[in-house]
């Protein structure tokens, strides 16, 4: 009986190793996918590619930017497209990811966006926008922002 119990224990341990390895690899893969999505969005924004500018955001997006009312996906996409189509201004975003925490199908990203903007007849500006983005894994496996909070740094 003891030999059977030992054999059963060994089988259970052997079966749990691949599952544990897969579980520890999942957050690493999710973090890499989220980093890639943020970098792609930055490149699309800086290239003024309005055809892909809303792909980072889920349709059920809600966000808060200090000093403004809560906004949604449609409002953000309209604002982004309108801004990028304004050829009188030059925009450039850069990104500093401070932390990514993944738990199942949700992830939280602490980051700071730096926006440089210039327009004819006006001094160039640079703003830092710290924020917290909440990503959710979508049914197709991609990660999209469903909530975010941002503000302009003092």
CATH architecture annotation? Roll
Radius of gyration computed on alpha carbons: 21 Å
The separation of the N and C termini measures 70 Å
Low-confidence stretches: 9-13, 17-23
Shape call: globular
> How many domains make up the coordinates?
1
What's the order of the H and E elements?
A: HEEHEEEE
Largest sheet: 6 strands, mixed
CATH class: Alpha Beta
CATH topology: Nuclear Transport Factor 2, Chain: A
Given helix and strand content, the structural type is alpha+beta
**Strand order across the largest sheet:** 2-1-6-5-4-3
Mean pLDDT across the residues is: 88
Percent in strands? 35-45%
**Level of helix content?**
25-40%
List its traits:
154 residues, Nuclear Transport Factor 2, Chain: A, 41% strand, alpha+beta
3D architecture notes:
The structure is a single chain. With 154 residues, this protein is α+β, with helices and mostly antiparallel strands. The protein has a single domain, classed as Nuclear Transport Factor 2, Chain: A (Roll), CATH 3.10.450. Helices cover 38% and strands 41% of the residues. It contains 2 helices and 6 strands, in the order αββαββββ. Residues 9-13 and 17-23 have low confidence and may be disordered.
Task: Please outline the helices and strands.
Blueprint: H1 2-46, E1 57-65, E2 71-72, H2 73-85, E3 90-103, E4 106-119, E5 122-137, E6 143-150
Parallel strand pairs: 1-6
Antiparallel strand pairs: 1-2, 3-4, 4-5, 5-6
Briefly characterize the structure.
Helix content is 38%, strand content 41%. It is α+β, with helices and mostly antiparallel strands and 154 residues long. The chain has one domain: Roll (Nuclear Transport Factor 2, Chain: A), CATH 3.10.450.
